[in-house]
Amino acid sequence: MKSGFISFILLLFVLLAVSAFYGYPSILHALPQGSHLWRQTYSMDMVLNYKLYHLPFLQPEVSNLLSTDGKAAAEFPLLYFISAKFNQPEFALRLMHSILFISGIIAAFYIAFHFLRDYLLSFFTAMLLFSSPLLVFYGNNFLTDVPALSITYIAWAVYLYAPESKFKLLYYSSFFLLISLSCLLKASQAINYGILAVLIIFQPNALLKKPVYIFILMLTLLPIYWWYTYAKEYNIESHHTYFFLGTSPIWKLSWYDIGLTAWRILVSWSKSYFWRPTSILLILCFFLYQKYRKRIFKELHLFVLSSFVFTVAYIILFYERLMKHEYYYITFYIFVLFWIVAILYICKRFYGEIISWIKVFLVCLLLVNIIYCKLYTAEKQTDTHYNKNLASDEMQHFLLSKGVSQFKTLISIPDETPCQTLYLIKRKGYTEFNNYREVLENKEADFLILTDEAWKEKASLKPYLNDSIGNFHGITLYKLK
């Protein structure tokens, strides 16, 4: 017990120290920036709308009026709604996601220890996950992918330690609730139900076969069914088509797109997983696993096999999304966790005579991965920049002084995203993502904001640029009606 507590404190200390090395404390205060700024601002914009317009929980909105009043629903907006209650919602959301991420990494440690019974190997498992640029970058970001994965890790840790508890009903009920919550935050986490089904079917003495547990499991499926049914209906009624609530299977793509996506998953975007030699090593370990697969602990083998099968099914069903968004790869890390544990289990059990040397190698490998993660995530933070003038308090004063109140409608161009600049200026309206020419013709907006002088030469815009009412650091404001 004492050694377990010391290990927990040590792991927590190292996680916080490495978080500081990654720059988490300063990033916590930052607005959306870096890779996939488009999707980041869409999530944060929903938070802002909750805050500015005091919206009910079940009526989320965004600033782009591509639907009725900007109404839009996708993932369960629990964390968005909570963060909107704080004075600094960006900080609040990043902090909540960071806490969940670190908690998930700690849970991964306990999952590894359940199978390995070795503190150093379990520590390596957890910290290797914490050196993945994909997880680290999105771990304190605005997307729900990593928080959902983290809750999944916590859920499986609860599941694995439930048999050792006197309160099995409480543990398993908590497990079901956590899996349900992870699916609400990210629908792709539903693959955990497939993994669970395999465990129940192929473990003859599985406690979860009892009717009471099956009943509780069914109950926790209801919120998932209810929310995604509600979200689809909400979007249909609001004429919202942006949020993706369906599948995009591989068989709907051309051979070119299939090949392009495979190249991105395996090659061009693979540097987001780990330091590339580490990823190659994990792949090569397939031969090691193949050699000892029949001698591996059955439960661990079931976890590896089922998580792999359902991850492949996920790839097939969401193949098109994987071509455009690398954050969809975060779901792979359910399998990645159990794969790492399985390889280390083989090393400990069948290569015990050199395990000390293996541990030295793993520590060196981990240090290289952490440094690589630091450098690559810093690069990802600078992929895309937001307009700091639009985001400034002075810009808010400028808009209000020109009669652009919170409830006025604007066209903000150039901006090819739905919400990036609208989020920064804290107003509802339209961007290039919409048919802004039609909006201009129909006089559906009150003002136009132009952030690029070159756009003044566009013939389609010139008729609407007659009434300039102010300029703020090169940003020109026009009154339309």
Task: Give a description of the structure.
It is a single chain. The protein has 481 residues and is mainly alpha-helical. It contains 21 helices and five strands. Strands 2-1-3-5-4 form a five-stranded mixed β-sheet. The radius of gyration is 25 Å and the shape is elongated. The N and C termini lie far apart (71 Å).
Fold topology:
Elements: H1 2-22, H2 24-27, H3 37-53, H4 78-83, H5 89-116, H6 119-129, H7 133-139, H8 145-161, H9 168-185, H10 191-202, H11 211-237, H12 255-268, H13 276-292, H14 298-317, H15 319-324, H16 333-350, H17 355-381, H18 388-391, H19 393-401, E1 409-413, H20 420-425, E2 428-430, H21 436-441, E3 447-450, E4 468-472, E5 475-479
Parallel strand pairs: 1-2, 1-3
Antiparallel strand pairs: 3-5, 4-5
Give a short overview.
It contains 21 helices and 5 strands.
The radius of gyration is 25 Å
Sheet of most strands? 5 strands, mixed
The number of strands is 5
The CA-CA distance between the termini, in Å, is 71 Å
Q: Which strand order do you get reading across the main beta sheet?
A: 2-1-3-5-4
Structural class: mainly alpha
Residue stretches low in confidence (pLDDT < 50, at least 5 long) are: none
Helix content: 55-70%
Strand content: under 5%
Structural shape? elongated
Helical element count?
21
Mean pLDDT: 92
Order of helices and strands: HHHHHHHHHHHHHHHHHHHEHEHEEE
